[in-house]
Amino acid sequence: MSDKQVLVPVLTANWGQDQSWKLAQYERTGGYRALKTALKRTPEDVLTEVKDSQLRGRGGAGFPTGTKWSFVPKDLNPKYLVVNGDESEPGTCKDMPLLMASPHTLVEGVIISSYAIGVAKAFSYIRGEALHPIRRVRAAVEEAYQAGYLGKNILGSGYDLDIVVHAGAGAYICGEETALLNSLEGRRGQPRLRPPFPAVAGLYALPTVINNVESIATVPAIITRGKDWFLSLGTEKSKGVTIYSLSGHVKRPGQYEAPLSVTFRELFDLAGGIRDGHHLKFFTAGGSSTGILTEEAIDVTMDYESLLKVGSQLGTKAMQIFDETTSVVRTCLRWVEFYKHESCGKCTPCREGTWWLVQLLKRFEAGQAQEGDLEKLLSVADEINGVSFCPLAAGAVTCVTTAVKHFRSEFEAGYNTPAWELLPYERSTAWATPAVEGAAK
Amino acid sequence: MTDQAIAPNPDLVTVTIDGIDVAVPKGTLVIRAAEEAGIAIPRFCDHPLLDPAGACRQCVVEIPDAGNGRGFPMPQASCTTVAAQGMQVKTAATSEKARAAQEGILELLLINHPLDCPICDKGGECPLQNQAVANGRLQGRYEGVKRKFPTPLRLSPQLLLDRERCVFCQRCTRFAEQIAGDDLISLTERGAKSQVGFYGNAPFTSYFAGNVVQICPVGALTSEAYRFSARPFDLVSTVTTCDGCAAGCQLRADHRHGQVKRRQAGDLPAVNEEWSCDRGRFGFVSGRGDDRVTTPLVRKDGELVPASWPEALEAAAAGLAKAGSQTGVLTGGRLTREAAAAYAAFARQTLGTEDIDCRARALSAEETAVVPTAPAVLNASPVTYADLEQAKHVVLVGFEPEDEAPIVFLRLRKAVRKNKLQVTALAPYRSLGSKKLSATVVPTAPGQEAAALAGLDLDADTIVLGGERLAASPGALAALAGVAAKGARWAWLPRRPGEIGAIQAGAFPVAGRDTLAQLAALQSGELQALVIAGVELADLPDPAAAAAALDQALFVVSLETRLSDAAHRADVVFPVALLEETAGTFVNWEGRALPVAQVLSRTRSPMTDIRVLQALAEALGRPGTVPTDSPTRAAAPRTVSVETAPTPAPTPQGALVLATHRELLDDSRLLDGEPALIASARPIVARLNPATAKAAGIEPGDRVTLSTEAGVPGVTFDALIDPTVADGVVWAPARARGFNLAAAGLAAGRPVAIAKEVAA
Amino acid sequence: MSGHEFEYDFAGTGTMDLDDRSTNIDQATIAEMNELIARYPDKRSALGPILHLVQSVDGRVSAPGVEIAAALLDIPPAQVQGFATFYTMYHKKPAGKHHIGVCTTALCAVLGGDALLDCVEKKLGIHADETTPDGEFSLERIECNAACDFAPVVMANWEFMDNMTPEKAEQLIDDLRAGKPVQATRGATLTGWRDSERVLAGFSDGRADEGPSAGEPSLRGVQLAAEKGWTADSVTGAAPAPPDAPAAPPAEPKTEPKAATAKAEPKAEPKPKAKADAKAPAAKAAKGDKK
Q1: What is the ipTM of this complex?
Q2: pLDDT on residue B242
Q3: What is the pTM of this model?
């Protein structure tokens, strides 16, 4: 490893500080200065700064944040900002620690973003199964009100903003922005038809911007350091820094913040590589929905474009890393079970397709697959592919197709051998003793 | 395509589907454009009158060029994709990609379907079955387990749901929410466990619930009325017009073995679009009971006994000849225009009397003067459904559309949803219908309608809809007609299907006595005889007085399908054919003439009203006075000026006033024989506002007795304390099983006394 | 070992429990519901929070709770039921005093979630989606809870119980059953599921300041950067931080007992298959496995 700087802590910089979630501590390290800077500028100016920074959505789709803001009709009021804190994509675990360690980063981001868009009421929708992050964000919002950062006439600027912190109630699909809007409106979290896009008709059919927690939390840094600093990091089309999450069979799983020009190998090395005595088998690039990659993709740059080229996606930048003890059939089944469990049920391919895939995969796992089941598995995946209402089902399809592509023989073993016999499950656990019997290459 | 398509029209886009160019208005969905081009695309969730859902994905097509030179890599749902200029679309007919995708969706739809077509009501007319046969795989590949649900689930007394058959198109839940506004059903659970459900103590008793059975693309939803009673391919369909109210809905009546098995909404975009209400859909079996009159009856020794037709005609002719022109004719409001014209001819030409009236309800001289001038009656620029849909402001006065013309309600609701129509209701309380129309309610006590109307800003963008109840509100009908002076348009909506046609046909007292005057004259002896057809005495303002008048009459001839209070008092009763056994015309509230088709040819009573009247005319020695096809002659309208309209009667100081109307589902005899329909009626409650309740010491959960004055017998209801009720007003339904407010002397606009019921 | 049975018989689903009409909802609860409603421009938005409040009061989404919510929001109860049954956090049957969730989505399952679920099921004597007869515990198989770098993860009353082992899981249950104070690894002291539901509804319990800023994995990147002197300024090759910028000081996780770990790490980052760091998680996990 060279001396090249790999990590750039921006959003994560203050996470380790004592009482980092408190306003006083946040202000001690420069918190809310970006807000003061922003309020001295015009909203248009702030919006332009964010747009020109080429910040792209950090929630998976990668749509340019400032562009999204600019789609909102200027003179149609009221309009809303909704923060998507429904972090649920398997492998994704960056927003919850951010909300827990530095909720004020989000709150400051919300205020600046709302000011830029012209919003007087913002909602922070956080998945309900994350109690402590919700506590911390609520407390931060309360502190911000008391400090005059929220409410009427913020810091004497004449600008008013209220934030409502809203807890979800358990539904992965609500990470899809229109499903989230339905949920926030007290409806079932089924995705909505687009157009109209939320920017035109979103919450309560009014113009609405929906951004991921990390996207909004990045805004204060852009305002403070300027777009040029942000533009100097990353690749040609993927600018800035972002939080990468590494989990699984690496020695030091965790959150690593780096420019979008970092490679998987660099991150993997920082995380200490695979646990002792084992080696890499497969990994996801951006959550389970982006499918699996193997060692051959280890030098791919973790940016939006490069991953597309290898048939994956940057997604939520969540690398789940598995060593050679792991059954790919089992892992694939569990992912598809996840999609089946989280399917909203609205469209046929997702509702029925995941139902079928799970049953087929269970036969493979149990070593009871029948002649032709592998072809059937791929054929059913193909029937689902590309025709579902929203991208949820595509995640299941990608898991299956990439798993079979890379590990066909392991599926074929499922005609005779249960996965738990082929690859005993206890060897994959976090508490398994280091392998001795020739597991390493 | 012809020259029209070549000429550039800025409001049209041209899209190419399977090589065929079709020009469609901007905003048209690809699936609709394909329909224009005559290309079939399979679909389950798509319905032209529901908002697009994109749920089933069966309609996917390949779009190699979205009109901007770029195509979609994957097939797109044609039910949610808007046609764009230059767009290229390839359906399954020309694209292997689209065909394979559709086949895949179909296979997925079938994996959890029970494939119980041989025992399913929908079999034979089932889109899923049709698709599977036409485009499905020859052999299923699914070897897994299927979803299991206890079956059926009873959503309401009328509706049953077999969840295993459901394909989650959401047509039913979207209909309930978007069209009816009764979102009493919802998807529950999620994913593979998804299902349509209702909440245990709030069944899906929408007035429009039956529509979901019709639009269900599989056999998941069935009705208690029709379930297991026929196979679609054994039924013969006849398009006809509904006799439920004056809305004029087109229906399709399906019969087998000489019996109508079901009625479905027809497809008449100008009127009911593709909907009907449950009264129209299910309320058609009342003529099948034991009380059907099948032979003439003649009173002998005080008893009505069966008689031959010649004997009965002779007896009737003798009695009528004796009375001569001192005979009244009451026709009720449910006859076709042709039948009404025959009665008018029989009255005027055969009997020589001007005393004929089609109204069997509260009426007034003011009404007699005003309604013949209604635009729909005169067919002079009448208000139409399309006008309601495009209107900016609609005022409802003395008219509760959901109860009194349900399809008018649906069109108003559509306009509210789609075109931001504003509705103002001058009503005694905020009804469920008003709520679903987001109406501004001006609390109006019965009798105060004229004043309330005068208080509104009305202009050329306003349409005022007045109901038949205005007859009991002095000055109200004159005020209704008077809105034309402010540039507003107006329409008068009777409840019954035949009244407008009857007025046009002359079954209306232009120069003679109206219904109430005839009854009074029978009582006093000024009139001697009465010909009465299709009138329920219970419908009249004073049923007891009406019965006494018939008893007092020297001679009564009744033409009836079923024995009734009037028939029981007649000297001669002639059986007449049911509406489904006859043909003619209904004129709906718009003045639109709509065909009533003869559905059944085999009948237990082959004589229609017209043929009986002709035979009677012959027996009276006046053959030819009742033509088979009587010309309709509009009554010469009397003039009434707003200035001379009677002023509203003052309400006694501090007295409560009764408000009432007939709900869609009550004890109407037309609903007999359909218990599931009647069980879907709304809860029977009396509504009073908190101040009234407090003054009377009534609390939630109490029962309250309504009577003409304290201490006399009345009618007792569950009390509903409703803050939207106008001050000093108590509302209760006019009728239901077991009571008739009119029989207790209670009438709209009249004082009412209330008392908390003391437990016995 | 093959995970849960494939469920296909859905008898009894789709509806709330209308037989049990018991409720603790009173005028004070209704006042709080109205308080929630007032937070939103459109009152239906308060449905989710109201149902969390119902759970905190009734221990489930009770039939009276559904009906009161429907009345306050002026929507049919079918809509409330359709909403409540869509989201997994709403219980139709009473949950336990403590609600335990074991993550068995792919990564946690592989890292031991399946074994943990087996262990907890045995320990409690119930299966997932059941409640112990004494009402102390309910158990749920949960899907990914956004803590994958702490896998395998257990949630107790929706507080994080990170890096679980069967031994720790059994200890957790024993301690909770004994009424001993249990501190979430990243959160507050566990008091009960209903208390958590009240916070989710939108009412503060004043315990935001309990627990650490972050867990060890969350800080790995920032600590490594601190060791190497990598900052947001250094990356652009110069540019001392603007005067009003965060100073981006090296992270000093004072409250973290594991702070030493990072410091002990070698400066030069090892290659993937290089020698093991004595204090790396794999080694620690191995220790835990000795039992």
Answers
A1: 0.96
A2: 98
A3: 0.94
